[in-house]
Specification:
about 500 residues, alpha/beta, Rossmann fold, Helicase, Ruva Protein, domain 3, 3 domains, five-stranded parallel beta sheet, two-stranded antiparallel sheet, elongated
């Protein structure tokens, strides 16, 4: 072999070894050993791998050394030709391999950074959760064998956060949930409302049978599920609406049976175009349940574009969601009749009215005693007579706008507040002291206590007054209790 051939072979061998070392370090020895023969041919791999051992040092005159070449072993010239065919330009091949390695390394760094960022984000979320719930140490256990939860670290200026121990958490998880009462039983348990209970049961029976007829592929009579509740405040309209929502769910008319309670302020916005969005938001909350609109007549005031926009949005939703939305409107009797008659769409959709009468004095006393029983209070007989007298007096004074059960609830709260102040002044109040309601608890001023004989006279006078119709002068119309039209406007209309 001449000097030129030998030099060329050594240069090629050095480049090949450099390429093998570089790629071997990056991808392992296997990749480095295959780079000179991607096809994986064993004969050529062995030939290239053993090039150095098969080539003997050439003497000065160009003859082979004393060791003879084995039979079938390629000569140096043959190896050189073979390598030149596979690598016409070995320098470019090495550069390409190096560039590929750099690209892969840069991509690896990018992927590594993405993984690092993702892990950091998860760790921050976990740290925030642990800050709210307390750090959990898997090795820390309470004496009862439950998991121990340590207190979270508070940030500067924040109040200390109280977290439950493992035993408390376990007790909370195992605490039985209160069983849901049957809505029909809850309806029967309400004080008074005899006609209301009858009307609701009739409605539920009719709707239930129509649903059964549909399942049996019989013709069902179309029925509107939307209702109009009329009556004075505190007569149980909201309570009955909530029960009806659950009954509708029970018989399969509604999916969820929730009650969303709103009034004019919950539907009407202060700017043009926003009322429809605000009304639609409440409708979305009520889907699958009942939308209860209290004092709905306030939406139909004179020259009220905002209220009309809310009504139009409501009517469209009632048409679009006929199978998963029920609307109940409520308010004083006469204003509600005017409200329904003000719009043909309302009149066609609301054709079922339920009138809520005022509670009698006996029923109001039953409601008061139910509140006492519910919160573990016992009222003395003399105090009970005084409560009755006050209810009679209030009903006489507020004949049109008497708040019924709401008035009873307010009176009950005032009485137990007075009772708490009296008992707190005792040195060592007993169990009975904390439960007992006396005449002294009925008002701040003991002088307001009414004589028992006076109580009887007041009640007799009240019965007379409440059963006597109110006389109206000819040519004058009695103002509706829920009329929202200003007095000046009413005079102008008259």
């Amino acid at each position: 072999m001449d000097k030129r051939t030998k030099k060329e072979l050594e240069r090629l061998e050095n480049l090949t070894n450099a390429e093998k070392n570089l790629l071997g370090n990056l991808y392992g020895e296997l990749f480095g050993s295959l780079i000179t023969d991607p096809s994986g041919s064993s004969s050529e791999k062995d030939s290239v791998k053993n090039t150095e051992s098969s080539q003997k040092r050439v003497s000065g005159n160009g003859t082979q050394s004393s060791q003879t070449r084995k039979s079938g072993e390629p000569t140096a010239a043959e190896l050189l030709d073979r390598v030149r065919k596979k690598h016409p330009n070995p320098v470019d091949d090495a550069r390409k391999a190096l560039q590929e390695a750099k690209d892969l390394m840069s991509r690896t760094d990018e992927l590594s950074q993405e993984i690092t960022d993702s892990n950091r984000k998860r760790m921050e979320e976990l740290a925030n959760m642990m800050g709210d719930l307390g750090q959990i140490d898997p090795t820390a256990m309470n004496p009862d064998g439950t998991q121990q939860v340590s207190q979270p670290v508070n940030k500067p200026g924040e109040a200390p956060v109280q977290t439950a121990t493992g035993a408390e958490v376990k007790a909370q998880e195992e605490a039985p949930k209160e069983p849901e009462t049957d809505p029909m039983e809850e309806l029967d348990g309400l004080v008074g409302l005899t006609t209301i209970k009858h009307d609701v049961k009739e409605l539920m029976a009719f709707v239930k049978i129509q649903k059964m007829r549909e399942k049996a592929r019989l013709k069902a009579v179309p029925v509107s599920l939307h209702l109009v509740f009329t009556g004075n405040p505190g007569t149980g309209k909201t309570t009955v609406a909530r029960i009806i929502a659950r009954l509708y769910k029970q018989i399969g008319v509604l999916q969820k049976g929730q009650l969303i309670e709103v009034d004019r302020s919950g539907l009407v916005a202060g700017y043009v175009g926003q009322t429809a969005l605000k009304t639609q938001e409440q409708i979305q909350k009520a889907l699958g349940g009942v939308l209860f609109i209290d004092e709905a007549y306030a939406l139909a005031q004179k020259d009220d574009a905002f209220g009309q926009e809310a009504i139009n949005t409501l009517l469209k939703a009632m048409e679009d969601h006929r199978k998963d939305l029920v609307v109940i409107v409520a308010g004083y009797t006469k204003p509600m009749e005017k409200f329904i008659d003000s719009n043909p769409g309302l009149k066609s959709r609301f054709n079922k009215y339920i009138e809520f009468p005022d509670y009698t004095i006996d029923e109001l006393m039953d409601i008061f005693e139910l509140n006492c029983k519910k919160y573990d209070y016992v009222i003395e007989e003399d105090a009970k007579k005084q409560v009755r007298a006050r209810l009679v007096s209030k009903k006489m004074q507020m004949r049109e706008n008497f708040a019924n059960a709401r008035e009873v609830r307010n009176m009950f709260e005032d009485i137990i507040t007075n009772q708490a102040r009296r008992v707190a002044a005792m040195e060592a109040p007993t169990h009975d002291d904390m439960m007992k309601i006396t005449v002294m608890d009925l008002s701040d001023d003991i002088g307001e206590v009414i004589d028992s004989k006076e109580v009887e006279k007041m009640e007799a006078a009240a019965r007379n007054m409440l059963t006597t119709p109110v006389l109206e002068l000819h040519g004058e119309e009695k103002a509706d209790p829920g009329d929202v039209t200003p007095a000046a406007d009413r005079n102008a209309e008259e």
